[in-house]
């Protein structure tokens, strides 16, 4: 075992033993657990291997909070042997977790689809235009959802206006004076934004690009996003009533239609068998030569080696990536491409979101340890964030709750 070098323990004499495989932001999650007689053990610096985590679980552990590690048979059987019944990913995505292995061992699997109410947005829309405000803009905007969508929007802009290249050029002392051809990029207004996977994050990203830059929408999802369609229709009517060109939407019959039509394409599906290498050599070839591709979902949704080859022969094609196929590594050649922007999986990295995720992950584990029921709607978890009141006695979001027969909360 690579010895963990900086173990930190809170409330050493606590009755319940909880391990957090990574140090998490904020202090509320620590207080919530220690107030309920939990001893918390976390590794502050190292990225732990599966072997390290088994050692940290030891022979007594009630629950674990983890992220990105490979949570399969080895870890779940170790947790079970130590008497554990709870695991929570500190993430909304849980493609790193073998849920059926957890269920087999009677272990609950939590995730963090954080949400909060955003009254300002609703007031703004109500004042702006009655129709527009009725367009089913959700009263609950996800904290993780919006944060991740904002990063995807930032990457779209950075790629469209070549901000990273221009920044590097400045710092290299190459700027001699204003030139008409210097870092000419793409105007977004009036262009088409394509969204693949129009769930919570994909829809929030679409709204930002449509409202912010008056782009038209084409999307592909297995399900119809009625709420998003109504929003774009109403916003289009609002623009028309104000003498502006209305925005439009189209639900594509195939993903290829999106790839063919869109100027900026952002990927937001879950990672599963149907989305693995969704973007590959063939699908890249369909896209416009000057298109922008953004990925803040999961790395393996793109065949990254094929992407590197595509970037080499299509210098006007740009890509902006938050996630990578072999994370934390990049495929050979990617870092050399000027038409690629790469950031280290920071889409959810706003203070509020990360602290909220830590709180939810801790409460998933605590709820299971205490035998609490499941919260009624994992997309409406605002009560768990109220710093002035104790959190509801429920598990905020357990993905295999039904399979384990955990009862639903009446709250
Ligand atoms: N980069 C980051 O830090 C973050 C990444 N994520 C990733 O984003 C993903 C999406 O998150 P949410 O929007 O909250 O999930 P969601 O479940 O609300 O949306 C996913 C959408 O993908 C669609 N989908 C599934 N298979 C598809 C297919 N074959 N083709 C097209 N669409 C398909 C689903 O119907 C659904 O509408 C997460 O699963 C996670 O992997 C989430 C948060 C942060
Ligand atoms: O929540 C997720 O799925 C993440 O990727 C963490 O940022």
Mean pLDDT: 91
Helix/strand class: alpha/beta
What summary fits the major beta sheet? 7 strands, parallel
Strand content: 5-15%
Described by the principal axes of the CA atoms, the overall outline is: globular
Number of strands: 15
N to C succession of SSEs: EEHEHEHEHEEHHEHHEHEHEHEHEHEEH
Low-confidence stretches: 116-140
Ligands, deduplicated: 1,4-dihydronicotinamide adenine dinucleotide, 3-hydroxypyruvic acid
Distance between the termini: 45 Å
Record the strand order, biggest sheet.
11-10-9-12-13-14-15
Portion in helices? 25-40%
Counting DSSP H or I runs of 4 or more residues, the number of helices is 14
Q: How much is the radius of gyration in Å?
A: 23 Å
GO molecular function: glyoxylate reductase (NADPH) activity; hydroxypyruvate reductase (NADH) activity; NAD binding
Enzyme class: oxidoreductase
Protein name: glycerate dehydrogenase
Catalytic activity: (R)-glycerate + NAD(+) = 3-hydroxypyruvate + NADH + H(+)
Brief overview:
By secondary structure, the chain is an alpha/beta fold. The chain is built from 14 helices and 15 strands. Bound molecules: 1,4-dihydronicotinamide adenine dinucleotide (NAI) and 3-hydroxypyruvic acid.
Q: Can you tell me about this structure?
A:
Residues 116-140 have low confidence and may be disordered. The chain is globular. By secondary structure, the chain is of the alpha/beta class. The protein has helices at residues 28-35, 50-57, 73-81, 99-104, 119-128, 130-133, 143-160, 163-171, 200-213, 226-241, 255-261, 281-286, 304-313, 351-370; strands at 7-10, 16-20, 38-43, 63-66, 86-89, 108-110, 116-117, 140-141, 192-196, 216-220, 249-251, 264-267, 292-295, 318-321, 340-342. It contains 14 helices and 15 strands. The strands form 3 sheets. The protein has a 7-stranded parallel β-sheet with strand order 11-10-9-12-13-14-15, sandwiched between helices. Strands 1-3-2-4-5-6 form a 6-stranded mixed β-sheet. A two-stranded antiparallel ribbon has the order 7-8. Bound molecules: 1,4-dihydronicotinamide adenine dinucleotide and 3-hydroxypyruvic acid (3PY).
